[in-house]
Amino acid sequence: MARQAQSSTAILGVLSIGPATGYEIRQAISTVLGHFWHESFGQIYPCLAELEDDGLVRTTPGARPRSSRFEITSAGRARLRALLAEAPVPQHPRNGVLLRTFFGDSMAQEDLAAMLDDVETQSRQRLDSYAAIRADITAEPAYAEHGPFWEATLRAGELTVEAQLAWVAETRATLLLSR
Known about the structure:
By secondary structure, the protein is mainly alpha-helical. The chain has two domains: 83 residues, Arc Repressor Mutant, subunit A (Orthogonal Bundle), CATH 1.10.10.10; 81 residues. Helices cover 68% and strands 6% of the residues. The chain is built from seven helices and three strands, in the order αβααββαααα. Strands 1-3-2 form a three-stranded antiparallel sheet. Strand 2 and strand 3 form a beta hairpin. The protein starts with a helix and ends with a helix.
């Protein structure tokens, strides 16, 4: 699935929950999907224009300029189903922590320890954030329909962070004590 198709998937997915302005789409992607997906305004608006040209979304004028609301069409729902059925494009990871750890024999021990402390702090903050998200999503009107899928996605994030914390503890024990 090409980059544009993945952007279309994210945008159509947001619109499948309800109509939104371009700004609201960006906010939903940033705040709701932002733990595992991102799109910039520079990607969203051209993609919306293409989706509209293809009849997959329609707009209704808003009260202010640039406040048009986008709504998914039945053809857009069919396209979303087709896009979701495609295999996702693997993303090449870029992880600065693992890059530094790999070359850690060139790091001062206190720098490695500080990096691990930072990773642990950030991971615990993400777990706290996920707990708040869990509370928020259960209050969403669309929870009855989408909740189990949102919960499964959230749980993947929690498990990833829990694995990160386990890795930090193991790395401290093996690398900091062995040097």
